[in-house]
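Journal club prep — side note

Before the paper discussion, L.F. wants everyone to see what a predicted structure for a comparable chain looks like in token form. Sequence:
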Amino acid sequence: MRIGFVGTGTMGTPIAQCLMAAGHALAVHDIRPEATATLATQGAAVFDTAAAAAHEAEVVFISLPGPKEVEEAMLAPQTGILAGLPGGGICIDLTTNAPSTIRQLADACTRRGVRFLDAPVSGRPPTMTVMVGGDVADFTACRPLFEAIARNVFHVGGSGAGCVAKLATQYMGYSNFIAALEAMLIAAKAGIDLDVLARIVPLSAGQSRTFDNIPRGVLTRSFAAGGTLDIIVKDVELACALAREVAVPAALGHAASDLYKRAQAEGWGQDGFPVVARLLERMAGAELRGTEKTHD
């Protein structure tokens, strides 16, 4: 299949590589020429605009930071995807986006005779999870493509439903991360060995995949993680905006969003999101530091 791919950054490149490994021909575009270099050496055709990458495609994938970038990539009059993608084609947005933006983009696609799926992802390819919103027949047609990039593939519902599912899971995970940091600080100030507690939590009610970033990224002081603080600020704020739209209180999410934004204001946006721990440590007057050299 001829596939266009717009946005070949940290997530886009490995996803595009999975599609190429499955035998598809890729035409790629990124506003940063250096971001397409790896794919070019592996046989992808590189184009200067999103419209050019979409021109001969049957399906175009988008993997960009957020709603603003996706709108520009799709709707720019001369250079956007819809200026190049033929009628009957399918556009698949992998971005963690706003459901309201998805609805607008889906309407724009319909007017151009283009089909549209929102399909945000969680994890890393090829073992990640993809949550798809849109027409079930379009989802079925694209399912082999999703299965080439993800282990877990879900059709959630109509247009925007994929993004709702992703934002709900982001809200859970990153609100929980703040609660977990606070609990660890309580334990630290009460004199508990944090390495021991870190081994207890996965066997207790506190267990979560997000907590696992504390022994790996906080107790080791590396603050490393798969997502940057900037990305988490965006995702949690989108989740809180959705909560306001559907009239849900979201008190925990708003508190977490404020803390992530305050950490971002410290200049830590491009660090791994666990760096927010430094802000909470300052507030508590304590440090989360383990004594073990490594944490699995």
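L.F.'s comment for the group: DSSP finds twelve helices and nine strands in the chain. Keep this in mind when we get to the figures.
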